[in-house]
Specification:
The chain is α/β, with parallel strands linked by helices. Helix content is 39%, strand content 9%.
């Protein structure tokens, strides 16, 4: 990691000023676009929950466009009524509202919206039901250049539309593998590289893990923030398993599917790494509190004592844009943090599985918008989508510290540093499973079947049950829970394997 080439200009506090100063620039860029029609008109944008007075949505997406186009009034309409559940539980046995179905009702309503803002998981369903306009014709006609858009974003969107584009996403977030160079140098091991498999990363982790007790350096963690308790590992290992698309239950949500070779391999791999102490071990919080109090008393308190990566005790960790920002700021202010040693670091692409080549753990496409097939104002709808996915908008939003714009030209290392920024867009999103998304909407508490698995994972990691027997127990208990959910979609799942009172509010 090289030192910054120049001082940080300003931090987040100056973002508002930057945005303000950029507005006239964007306005100037917008001039000469060929649109001389000053007729006043309305552009309606449908969202899942944002309403007409939502300040965040307007600041994020519409204010600059409205500034540039004062004759276009933007109306924001919400598909869901947040007050329905905010002021009371869903009545027992009443079928929960499906957000996707509510959006479809709005799209097909008497006063249909022009633009549809949606989640990535919703995209295939709306495309299959012919509710979105294909954007390729407009893109070709206007020669709208997408060659600079992150391949993971374009390929992810095209995969939902059978090779065609029905929506665009101006920003995205993803994970990378963050590593501390020192443990590798100490062990004489080469640094990780882009395109490695999970097995290769775990092999590196074994080679750099060393020491005992408080002096141990661990090889890998799914998070740099928390030590690896059984509970954390159970949920965090989803980063490893998600690209494999292992299902917890079948398409009709009446039968569990965890009693399988695939699930057994995932659990066995995680448990073996835990036994080898490759993952950071759980914190003794009583001891940690004592050390923290003692450090504060003698003026040597280190705010990263509970963070294994920032404490130099973890060689590799999954990270995101905001974790890098914390690391950059800590290194820059190291002289003011007693007990903190600056970390020489870099990043590489997320590891992948050979059977799911190129697919990373968590790539999220944000701000997805498409044009309603029944749009009343399709021209302005395209104009708006083109604007927020264009270079001017990307240049402005690239100043944000926690989000990545979709155009690679404006994805640059922060503060003049040199690190492998391309790692953020080297993998593709996990393919959408529309049927699974529908089931989670139809049965809001079905995710608790996953939580049930915790107790069986503990039995396997503690050695009181074999991995396969633990999975069989989860399968049996989960089957009973799914049966009850069919009878009452709002039921709360009893974590012991039964069902509790059916009075839960959808989540």
């Amino acid at each position: 990691m090289t030192k910054p080439k120049s001082k940080l200009l300003r931090t987040v506090g100056g973002l508002t000023l930057i945005a303000t100063l950029t507005v006239p620039v964007l306005a100037a860029c917008n001039k000469g676009s060929g649109d001389n029609d000053k007729t006043e008109r309305v552009l309606r944008i449908a969202t899942q929950y944002y309403g007409e007075e939502d300040e965040y949505f307007r600041q994020q997406f519409t204010e600059i466009f409205e500034y540039n186009n004062p004759n276009i009034k933007i109306e924001i309409v919400s598909a869901m009524d947040p007050g329905r559940y905010r002021y009371g539980n869903n009545p027992e046995n009443e079928k929960p509202e499906d957000p996707n179905e509510k959006m479809k009702e709005l799209i097909n309503g008497a006063n249909p919206p022009d633009i549809v803002m949606l989640n990535f998981e919703q995209l295939p369903d709306l495309i299959q039901n012919n509710m979105l306009q294909q954007l390729d014709t407009n893109i070709t006609k206007d020669k709208f250049d997408l060659s600079d858009v992150v391949p993971a974003v374009i390929e992810g969107l095209k995969s939902a539309g059978d090779g065609k584009l029905f929506a665009l996403a101006p920003t995205f977030s993803s994970q990378v593998l963050l590593y501390n160079k020192k443990p590798f140098d100490d062990a004489g091991v080469k640094y990780p590289t882009d395109g490695m498999t999970w097995d290769e990363i775990f092999d590196l982790a074994r080679r750099v893990s060393k020491g005992d007790g408080e002096d141990r350096v661990y090889g890998f963690g799914f998070s740099q923030y928390s030590y690896g308790s059984k509970e954390n590992l159970f949920y965090e290992m989803n980063n490893y398993s998600a690209p494999l698309q292992l299902r917890m239950f079948n398409d009709t949500a009446d039968k569990m599917t965890v009693d399988s070779d695939g699930w057994e391999k995932v659990w066995s791999t995680m448990i073996q790494l835990s036994k080898e102490k490759i993952f950071p071990e759980p914190i003794d919080y009583n001891k940690m509190d004592g050390l923290r109090r003692a450090a504060m008393d003698n003026g040597s308190y280190n705010p990263f004592q509970g963070n294994p990566f920032m404490s130099g005790k973890l060689a590799m960790s999954l990270g995101q844009q905001y974790t890098l920002n914390e690391l950059i700021q800590a290194n820059k202010n190291a002289q003011n943090i007693k007990g903190y040693t600056p970390i020489d670091w870099d990043i590489v692409s997320m590891p992948t599985h050979p059977e799911a080549k190129g697919i990373g753990g968590n790539v999220y496409l944000n701000g997805l918008m498409g044009i309603n097939a029944k749009a009343q104002n399709p021209n302005d709808a395209w104009k708006f989508i083109k604007f927020i996915n264009g270079e001017d908008w990307a240049r402005l939003k690239s100043k944000s510290v926690n989000q990545l714009v979709s155009r690679t030209k404006y994805i640059q290392p922060r503060d003049g540093l040199q690190y492998n920024i391309k790692a953020f867009y080297a993998t593709k999103p996990v393919p959408i499973e529309s049927e699974m998304s529908r089931l989670y909407r139809q049965y809001p508490n079905i995710g608790q079947v996953n939580q049930m698995g915790m107790q069986y994972f503990k039995k396997a990691i503690d050695g009181t049950s074999t991995v396969r027997d633990a999975l069989k127990e989860w399968q049996t208990a989960g089957d009973a829970a799914l049966k009850q959910l069919k009878e009452n979609p709002n039921a709360q799942i009893d974590m012991s394997g039964g069902m509790g009172a059916a009075s839960a509010m959808p989540r």
